Amino acid sequence: MSFGRPPSFTSFTVLPPERGSFPLDHEGECQLAMKTYLKCLRSNGNDNGKCRELSKAYLDCRMNRGLMERDEWKNLGFADTPATGAVGNVNGEAAAAGDASSNRSSRTG
Prior knowledge:
Layout: H1 31-43, H2 52-64, H3 93-108
Helix pairs in contact: 1-2
């Protein structure tokens, strides 16, 4: 009996993904980068071209934290972007710290 598959279909082979598997971000290490990228997509009508640097920042965060294998940017679709210095802080810690320090200085000044 076939139970939902065509009777001529005898067997199939399960293949792993081409790029391999990678762990999910259970600890939320790259959550800020991901949310920033998704917010950019929503505000730009899902035009990912306008959010490329945020996408690159998210992938960089994942690679830096061992959540995906490090690869060359050209293999990830970023051949047209500079290789160094383009991403900056990928999870927003520096930006948040900078905002806090500017708020403190404006309150004390």
